[in-house]
Amino acid sequence: MPVEMELDPFVLAKSLSGVHLIDGEFVAPVNGKTFDVLNPATGKSIGQAAEGDKDDVDHAVMVAKAAQKSWAERPARERGKLVAECGRVLNQHVDELGKLIALESGKALRTESRVEASVLADMFVFYGGLASELKGETVPFNPNMMTMTTREPVGVVGAIIPWNVPLLLMAIKVAPALVAGNSVVVKSAEDTPFTVLRVCQIMQQILPKGVLNILSGFGPGCGGPLVEHKDVKKVSFTGSVETGRTVYRAAAEKLIPVTLELGGKSPMIVMDDADLEKAVAGAIGGMRFTRQGQSCTASSRILVHEKLHDEFVSRLKDRVNALKMGNPLDESTDIGTIINAKQRAKVCKYIELGSEEGATKHELSALPDDPELADGQYVRPVIFTDVKPDSRIAREEIFGPVACVFKFKTFEEALELANDSDFGLAATVWTTNLKTALVATKRLEAGFVQVNQNLVVQPNLSYGGIKLSGLGREASLESMLEHFTHKKTIILNME
Predict the structure, then answer these.
(1) Which of 24, 35, 184, 403 has a 20 to 30 Å separation from 486 between CA atoms?
(2) Helix, strand, coil % (nearest 5) of the chain?
């Protein structure tokens, strides 16, 4: 049956309350427990999510395992066509999904949430077109032997997604896994369970039952059992370093492959020959101010040449001050809210810490004056200058609208500052000198490096980090082949 459009996100959230999606159907949690999902803009409940536990995981994985065999036996191009069709249908629901993710995440509809819903659809279409690349090789081993390799799916994939960009990060796990012939069990983030559940509901119109299943719940009670389940043969996780280590240990016990994307403290180098206006605009986008800085790739360490530093800071402050904070569902809103009270308290603590560490605080924009939003998780963007490189605000991932601006004299100094981090996810350099750009891209210690731009994750751009930022790559053909298939070598003796 076609899924009817519902453009009222409040109605939609209520309709998705209290259930998982397993074997193509909504089902209540075995334990009967639910938990409130709050609108971070008002602090009010918008619905109740199912609180999954080990029994729900067992059910979902059993169903996924049973469905995977026949799914893998379908021709790869047929699987690809179905996944691409999912993308085309999801594209028809962009406005609906954008409003729902704005409601439960607090991200502004116009600047963030609707864009994310569009990229979600595009990612499924992109991977659907790669099905023909699931091919092996012939190997010139011996003229009397026919030697070849094939690609085979790993089995049941456990996908654990975060709350900051749940649609995109679900897509870059689910789409390649499905095209490669695997079945998937998704564990959603407890703060944003409804939009990804809606996506899976929409996709059930096209996919065979049991191929894609989704659970909601908390990490220890639901995520842990999913990672540890004996029939889960691959885990793809995005989240914190601390939780990533826990996932890695559990996967290691089973000796299964794991993909981890764990965050960053990304540098942005602005050279003295940079186009200042473009660099300032790049800092606005790169710092993800319209996402309240809640991004793994946020350019939270901005390194500016001393010749441009003061003018850069002045222009950056003007641009951030012009951004409007407000109701995420209002089309005029540029900046929404922090995800929840706990994260807001963490961000505010770092802002206090920055002042205590001697940095100069520039608090920008303005809190909304609507009394309906008085209990929302709003935080004014902050730019710190005069930051010490060894301070906590300079080294630890804050995951909020807090940027540190540093002053440097030489290119070598900038590179040393940029690489002086435990993280290595993303980096950018802004310059009009080709040699400077090429040297920077070679020497910057990050998995995703850009020059004179600051794009977010896109289909067909290999994405992932080094150091504490994680293991593996996503959003590319490489990720589908290397992370969601096994290579089998076959030798036929013809003598």
Answers:
(1) 24
(2) 40, 20, 40
Fold of 267-458: Aldehyde Dehydrogenase; Chain A, domain 2 (3.40.309)
Q: Which residues are within 8 A (CB) of 206 and not within 5 positions of it... i.e. 6 or more apart? A: 82, 85, 86, 89
pLDDT of 2 = 84
pLDDT digits (tens, 9 = 90+) for 335-383: 999 999 999 999 999 999 999 999 999 999 999 999 999 999 999 999 9
Return the DSSP state at 232: E
Alpha carbon distance 491, 495 (integer Å): 12
Count of CB atoms within 10 A of residue 184's CB? 27
Domain boundaries, the chain: 9-262+469-490, 267-458
The whole-angstrom separation of Cα 12 and Cα 138 is 51
Q: How many CB atoms lie within 10 A of CB 345?
A: 13
Report the distance separating Cα 476 and Cα 46, nearest Å: 35
Give the HSE-up count for residue 253: Cα atoms under 13 Å, Cβ half-sphere: 11
Task: Single out the catalytic residue among 104, 261, 397, 474.
Answer: 261
Q: Quote the distance between the C-alpha of residue 310 and its chain's center.
A: 33
Average pLDDT, integer, range 479-488: 97
Q: How far is CA 273 from CA 66, 93, 262, 307, 431, in A?
A: 60, 44, 33, 9, 6
- List all residues 6 or more positions away from 130 whose beta carbon is below 8 Å from its beta carbon: 80, 176, 179, 477, 480
Q: Clarify whether 152 is annotated catalytic.
A: no
DSSP state of 335: B
CATH class of 9-262+469-490: alpha beta
What 3-state DSSP class applies to 318? helix
Amino acid in the structure at residue 85: E
For 101-119, b/e burial (b = at least 16 CB within 10 A) is bbbbbbbbbbbbbbbbbbb
State the Cα–Cα distance between residues 493 and 145, nearest whole angstrom: 5
Is this prediction's pTM over 0.70? yes
What is the DSSP pairing of strand 34-38 with strand 156-160? unpaired
Which pair of tokens denotes residue 273? 């020959």
Give residue 473's pLDDT band: very low, low, confident or very high (50, 70, 90): very high
Q: Rounded to an integer, what distance in angstroms lies between the CA atom of residue 470 and that of residue 447? A: 10
Start-to-end Cα distance in the chain: 56
Tens digit of pLDDT for each residue in 215-232? Answer: 999 999 999 999 999 999
Cβ(13)–Cβ(37) below 8 Å: yes
* Angle subtended at Cα 475 by Cα 99 and Cα 299, rounded to the nearest 5 degrees: 70
Whose CA is closest to 68, among 217, 210, 170? 210
